[in-house]
Amino acid sequence: MDRLKLEVIWGRYSWLGFAVAIAALAADRLHKMWMLDVYDIGSRGKVVVTPFFDLVMAWNKGVSYGLFQAETDLGRILLMLFALAITVGLSLWLARIAHPLIAIAIGLVIGGALGNVYDRFAYGAVADFFSFHAFGFYWYIFNVADIWIVMGVGLIVLESFFPAAFGQKSATKN
Is 119 tagged catalytic? Predict the structure, then answer.
């Protein structure tokens, strides 16, 4: 494979992004294995940790906020393929990244997405555990993979608004 073709799929910080993705995926899998198999959250019901935070067992067959529920095998496969396509796209973007913090951000999103794909494949739905609430308002229930995705996307959004802080030149012309 010549150098030009290799640069399309592997860049200066690809190793960092993929290392972060592997670590994020491992952390998510270890947490889910512990919650499901050791702590056995499914048999405990709601575990009140603080007045605003509970541990619960929720199987999400959709995406964020339970949108696009996939009740059939075809729907589940389509959600997995969609997440894998995004992962491939992010991997190609990772090859062009010029700042290590953005490589970390992309790695977090990839690792989180793969953690949730694993759940859909192994269990038919994504295992969620964390429930925050206050004054009768309940936010969505989420897991460690979702935390990685939100952190990664948040860093990417910050970089788009403050490129100089990430070593990038502003896209606007004077």
Answer: no
Is 146 one of the annotated active-site residues of the chain?
Answer: yes
- Percent of the chain, pLDDT > 90? 72
pTM for the model stands at 0.88
Of the candidates 28, 54, 119, 128, the residue annotated as catalytic is 128
One-letter amino acid at 30 equals L
Which of 28, 54, 119, 146 is the catalytic position?
Answer: 146
- Tens of pLDDT, residue by residue over 69-117, are 667 888 889 889 999 999 999 999 999 998 999 999 999 999 999 999 9
Residues 15, 107: Cα–Cα separation, whole Å = 10
